[in-house]
User: Fold Threonylcarbamoyl-AMP synthase from Devosia ureilytica.
Amino acid sequence: MTTLDLKAIADAAALLRAGKLCAFPTETVYGLGADATNADAVLSIYETKGRPRFNPLIVHCADLAMAERLAQFSPLARRLANTFWPGPLSLVLPLREGHGLADVATAGLDTVALRMPDHPVALALLRETGLPLAAPSANPSGKLSPTTAEQVRRGFGDVVPVLDGGPCKSGVESTILAIDGDRLIQLRAGALARDAIEEAMGQPVELAAEGAAISAPGMLLSHYAPNAHMRLDTTPRPGEAYLAFGPKAPHNSLIRNLSETGDLHEAARNLFSMLHELDAAGVSVIAVAPIPETGLGEAINDRLRRAAAPR
Ligand code: TXA
Ligand code: MG
Assistant:
């Protein structure tokens, strides 16, 4: 890790405090940040992304104390935060009286999704602003999430300033968990594997049922979409690009290997970047190798299915 660019962080904080947008790095993907207590600032996130207003945002906190001013933490919620924060786990919790968040940040729900990111630049920025920051992935709605500052610039041009913190180490978005009494319900598979949560908490993590009362409104089926058409669980036909996984893949310019050693962490980290690269080559089809459904494979396959969904 290089030393923090304190000047760049102070400049970004000044923009955010003034109600402007600024993209910033997290360990998962780059976020398009705004002061979560400022309705106009949050509205400009929706406008800039072209994101539907009914889709609430994740609010990023500097620490658990800031999070507890915004939402009600049950003992179970607090244990999750103590175990996994800072880290790629977003908790959906009931709003607390006097929370101060803009209604548009939560899309008018009585719950909020909170997380404390595990990235030195994000944490420094959160401390410097002293504000909770609403931040969806920093891509135009429906496009691939960015894992480098360069990809953010490609998506938004000069419209959005970007605080550069290098490539993201996880590469897929946070896992989203709702808490229902003493039950844990996964609303989105993500960078924290479900079995890791189960093991640390000593209890099962259920999958959100289709159309259930508790759900993440943003889980539209088509999402994270490259321009190319995608074929999953397969091998490439002549002329198709290939997203490979494991040691046996051939090498050529239209092939990217998510992980030659079959490591799912490496694969998650490479997923969006490699899709970006293959897409930028202008191919019409990207074939994708089968990925195991274990550990982080759950999140990787979720993103691949959304990228391949009809749109
Ligand atoms: O890794 C991440 O989570 C990244 C980085 C920037 O932190 N952020 C991210 O945000 O992925 P976004 O906006 O792309 O995804 C937010 C998801 C959506 O599916 C939304 O519906 C869900 O969180 N969500 C937000 N608030 C919610 C709530 N109160 N109840 C249920 N789902 C919620
Ligand atoms: Mg997103």
